[in-house]
Amino acid sequence: MYKYLLCWRYLRTRYIALASIISVMLGVATMIVVNSVMAGFADKMRDRLHGVLADLVVESVSMDGFDQFEGVMSRIQEAAGDDVVAMAPTMETPGILRFRVPGGFYERPVQIIGVRPRERAMTGDFAEFLLDEKGNQVPPSFDVPEKFREKSPAGAQLREMDGGEDDELSRAVREQLRQQAREQVPEHGAIIGYALATYHPGRGMPDIYMANEGTKVSLAFPKAGKKPDAGLDEFTVVGYFKSGMSEYDSTHVYVPLERLQYLRNLSSGPGDKGKVNQIQIKVREGANLDAVAERLQFALEKLRPMYFHVYTWEQKQGPLLGAVAIEQSILNILLFMIIAVAGFGILAIFSMIVVEKTRDIGVMKALGASTAGIRGIFLGYGLLLGAVGSGVGMVGGLLFVRYINEIEKVLSRILNHKVFDDTIYYFDKIPTLVDPHTVVSIVIGALAIAVLASIWPAQRAAKLHPVKALRFE
């Protein structure tokens, strides 16, 4: 019993130990907050990346793609069997987006993706990312509504002529206006990345649309063939792609697959299936993606050696996901050093106590205290310091994570600067994910450091001989 009483007494009276408790507390709290935020971001990123990409992607080595893709899809279905739920052919090519804005033109390099929207929606969360100007979800389609032409300058003039004269000149003018309306609002629709179409002023202000629905945009892209040649066509904005990932929202432009094939000289026209350079594949839930990808790679290698590559969605985004994991590991190592510093503080404090209390230790041993008992006093004191520090740090860290968005708003007002910049991911709040196993590991690690730092002073005190300890007293 005397061991616990002494530990508690030292904890209450030795205020120098408060520095060690605060160090452990800050280290534990910081590690919990950082891990929760990093895990939240990683979880959001994985969900959105998986939503943008299908479970598996079959790519050709050539950007011009391959023909008879339905036969390739049949081979995929045959090789994977029931593991494949849906497939969608895709044509992807780099290009340049251009549209008029007040005072000039807006131009950006983009990734042009030709898809069949309904088929593409069956292979992932593509449809969930399609929005209109008001933020409402729209169906996956490239159809251009007639109302867009009615709102065009030529369409407005046509409405003004409704009910007017019906002579030959009026009919000619109306036909001319209809032609102008078709030019102002092209018949083929395009879904462009949300970040391409908007300007984000920040500071809680709403986004400003530079390319409203019905805007005519031009796309330039390379044509297929031996000689380099550029293709150009015009499309009408019919919706926006908003995944929340800046990498995609600022580069992706979706257009009808058949139209892109035709413009790139990869299709001769209606009735020709044309060429594609990707096949997006949705796999049944619970299937082993790596195993399915390996089977498909083997089957397609027989079909056309060294031409097809099969990737899982994680492999496609391996560098990005790997960078996040490495960053989280490095931060954990650096932050754990805070607790290690607290451990050295405990070591120094306990060494001072041993020197200061040499006589008391000698008296206790002379009265019958065992070597294990003296050792247990210091080890228990170290454990108690670690328990108090890690306990308070755990509670503080979890409370900080719980109210992190409220804290961010307060700090933004105080600093007059947006602490969390939502222009990158379009998150409406800081994502967090508390992993109980990680929290427990952090607390156990802090306790272990506190106890380990107590071992040497405890062993030194336990080895003191009562006669030697009292010799100079």
Compact description:
With 473 residues, the chain is α+β, with helices and mostly antiparallel strands. It has helices at residues 2-13, 17-52, 69-80, 117-121, 146-150, 153-161, 168-184, 194-197, 246-249, 257-263, 289-303, 313-316, 318-356, 358-366, 371-402, 404-415, 436-462, 466-470; strands at 56-60, 84-101, 104-115, 130-131, 189-193, 198-199, 208-209, 216-222, 230-241, 252-256, 278-283, 308-312.
- Report strand %: 15-25%
The average pLDDT is 81
Question: What is the count of helical runs?
Answer: 18
Stretches where pLDDT is under 50 for at least 5 consecutive residues are none
Identify the strand order in the major beta sheet: 2-3-10-5-9-8
Work out the helicity level. 40-55%
- What is the overall shape? elongated
Give a short account of the largest sheet. 6 strands, mixed, barrel
Number of domains: 2
Distance between the termini: 27 Å
Order of helices and strands: HHEHEEHEHHHEHEEEEHEHEHEHHHHHHH
Structural class determined from secondary elements: alpha+beta
Number of strands: 12
Model description:
The protein is an alpha+beta fold and 473 residues long. It folds into two domains: 2-46 and 320-470, no CATH class; 54-144 and 186-316, no CATH class. Helices cover 54% and strands 17% of the residues. It has helices at 2-13, 17-52, 69-80, 117-121, 146-150, 153-161, 168-184, 194-197, 246-249, 257-263, 289-303, 313-316, 318-356, 358-366, 371-402, 404-415, 436-462, 466-470; strands at residues 56-60, 84-101, 104-115, 130-131, 189-193, 198-199, 208-209, 216-222, 230-241, 252-256, 278-283, 308-312. The strands form two sheets. The protein has a six-stranded mixed beta barrel with strand order 2-3-10-5-9-8. It has a two-stranded antiparallel sheet with strand order 6-7. A hairpin with an 8-residue loop joins β6 and β7. The longest helix is centred in the last third of the chain and has 39 residues, at 318-356. The protein is elongated, with a radius of gyration of 34 Å. It starts with a helix and ends with a helix.
